[in-house]
Amino acid sequence: MNTDFRPRVLQLSYSCGPDRGSEPGIGWNRAVGAARFCDVWVMTCEQDWGPTIRDYLATHGAIPGLQFAFVSHSLLELLLQRIPGLYYVAYNLWHRRAFRAARELHERLQFHLAHQLTFCGFREPGYLWRLPIPFVWGPFGGTQNYPWRFLGGAGWSAMLKEAIRTLINGLQLRFSRRVRNACHRAGAVLVANSTVQKQFTRLHPCPTTVLTDIGLASVADGETDRRQPANELRILWSGVIEHRKALEILLEALATLPADVSCELRVLGSGPRERRMRQLARRRGIDHRVTWLGWLPHAEAIAQFAWADVFLFTSLRDTTGTVLVEALGAGVPVVTFDHQGAADVVDATCGVKVAVTNRPDAVRRFCQVLTDLARHPSQLAALKRGCLQRAARYVWASTTAKLIEVYRQVLAARGCDWMPRETSPSTPFQAPVPPALLTTHQSMEGP
Fold first, then answer.
1. Helix, strand, or coil here: 314?
2. Are the C-beta atoms of residues 312 and 239 closer than 8 Å to each other?
3. Spatial separation of the C-alpha atoms in residues 278 and 290, rounded to whole Å
4. How confident is the model at residue 222 (pLDDT cuts 50, 70, 90)?
5. Domain residue ranges of the chain, discontinuous segments joined by +
6. How many other CB atoms are found less than 10 A from the CB of residue 240?
7. Which range (38-47, 78-87, 131-140) has the least confidence?
8. Which run of H or of E encompasses 372?
9. With contact defined as beta carbons under 8 Å apart, do 198 and 147 qualify?
10. Could you write out the DSSP letters of every residue in 67-82?
11. CATH code for 233-393?
12. Sheet architecture: strand order including 66-71
C-alpha cells in the first residue's frame, strides 16, 4: 500500500474564501483540509473570490499542496445574474466554461479525482462528472421544502415563491438528466443531512453517505457559564431576515412570555424583511428588548456568542446552517425546529428541538422553552456542558478525515491503493492560474 503517494484532486467550489462562514467557508476549509493529504487544485469564481484569495496568500503565504484556478464570469452571465429568475442560467453557463477549463487542466496535470463542492445544492451538479476520472459529488442539500402549514403567515409573495420552488424542486429531482447522470457517474454521492438522504434516494436509488455540509474551526477551551440566575435570559438570533428564516416566530414568542421572565434579544443580520420585523417588535411592545446589530465581520459576529445564553434558530427551510455549530462550539445551547439539518446537529444534550406543526403552536412551544430555560438555570447549564462535546463532531479536522476516507474508497474502487497520511506536496506550489489564462475558454466548444 502506497503511503507516500498524494493524489491530485480537482475541487470545484464556485464559492470559496478565507475567514468566511457559510458556502465560501465550506469551500475554503474543505480545500485546506484536503491539501494536507492530497495535491489540491480549486476552481472558483474570479469576480467573487479571486482578489480575496490572492490577497490572503500574499499576506499569509502559500498553503502547501493547494493551488487555485479562477474562472471569470462572462459579461452575459453578469447581466443574467441581475435579472430575477435567471441567476441559475448564469450559474450554469459559468459551470460550462469551468468544465472546459477543467478539461484543459486535466490534460496538463492528469488528476486522479474530481470533486464538485459548492454551491451545496443538488440542482446544479456541474460537469466534472464528464471527466474520465473518479468523481465525488457533494455534500449537497436543497431538496427540503418549506413546511406547507407555515405558508399562511409568510405573505403572498413568499407563498408564491415557495410554491413555485417546491414544484421546480420536485421536477428537477425526478427529471433532471444531469442530476441523474452525475449521480450514476459518481463514485461517491455525499448528502448534507438525513432528510436530503431520504428525499434524494427515494427518486435516485444510489448509495449515499451523510457528510454534513458545515464545519467549525475549533471549539471553546472549556465550559463557561456566563449567566447569573438574576440576569435576563440573553438570546441571539442570526441570519438573513427573510421569510424562510421566520424571525417573526421568535418575536411573537417573546411577546407572550410570562411577566416574570425577563430577556434580551440581539438580532445579527439584515434582509428584505427587517423593516417589517422592526415594526412587529414595536407593535407587540418588545422593541425595548431587541437590539438590531446588522451584519458584522465574521470574527465580530462569532464574538456575539460570548454574550448569549441561548441561540434561536427558527429557519423553516435550510439545509443545515453553519451558525448552528458555531453556537455549539462557543458553548451556547440551541433552540430550533426539529427538521432538516438542524434535527441532525442538535440533540437533547446541547439544545431543545421544537415540533414543526403550525405557526400558532410553534410560537407557544418556543415561548415555553424560553420560559423553562429562564426559570431553570440548572437546565441551561447542563445544556451548555453538552455543547462542546457535540460541537467536536463538526470541527473541520473531523469532517476532513471523513472526506479523505471517501476519497480513499473511491480511488480504491478504481484500483488505486492509497493509504492517506499527511505528507509534503508532491509538486511545488505554483501561483494561482490567472484569469487571463482561463478567458480563452469562453470561445471553446461547450460540454
1. coil
2. no
3. 9
4. low
5. 8-141+176-215+395-439, 233-393
6. 16
7. 78-87
8. helix 359-375
9. no
10. EEEEEPPPHHHHHHHT
11. 3.40.50.2000
12. 66-71, 39-45, 8-13, 113-118, 135-140, 188-191, 208-210
CA–CA gap between residue 262 and residue 370 (Å, rounded): 10
Q: For residue 226, give the C-alpha cell.
A: 456566563
Name the residue among 324, 45, 356, 127 with its Cα closest to residue 212: 324
Query: Do 8-141+176-215+395-439 and 233-393 agree at the fold level?
Result: yes
Helices 156-175/194-203 angle, 10° precision: 50
What are the pLDDT digits (tens) for 359-418?
Answer: 999 999 999 999 999 999 999 999 999 999 999 999 999 999 999 999 999 999 988 888
> Phi/psi of residue 290, each to 5°?
-115, 130
Alpha-carbon distance 73 to 48, whole Å?
A: 9
Place of cell 457517474: 185
Q: What is the mean pLDDT of the chain?
A: 90
Which range among 110-119, 205-214, 433-442 has the greatest average pLDDT?
110-119
| Beta-strand runs (E) in 195-337 | 208-210, 233-238, 263-268, 290-294, 310-313, 334-337
Residue the block writes with cell 491503493:
417
**CATH class of the structural domain 8-141+176-215+395-439:** alpha beta
Cell numbers 476516507: residue? 405
Task: Say how far apart CA 369 and CA 162 lie, in whole Å.
Answer: 28
- For residue 377, what is the enclosing H or E element? helix 377-391
Contact (Cβ atoms closer than 8 angstroms) between residue 23 and residue 118: yes
- Give me the amino acid identity at 398: S
What number is the average pLDDT over the span 267-280?
97
**CA-to-CA distance for 408 and 443, rounded, in angstroms?**
36
Cell of residue 204, nine digits: 435516485
pLDDT interval class at 431 (50, 70, 90): very low
Cell of 162: 415557495
Residue labelled with grid coordinates 417588535: 281
pLDDT digits (tens, 9 = 90+) for 84-117: 889 999 999 999 999 999 999 999 999 999 999 9
Instruction: Indicate the pLDDT class of residue 428, thresholds 50, 70 and 90.
Output: low
Nearest CA to 38 out of 73, 7, 13, 14 is that of 7
Q: How far apart are CA 93 and CA 78, in angstroms?
A: 11
Please identify which residue in the block is written with the cell numbers 417589517. 276
Measured over the CA atoms of residue 324, residue 326, residue 329 and residue 331, the dihedral's sign is negative
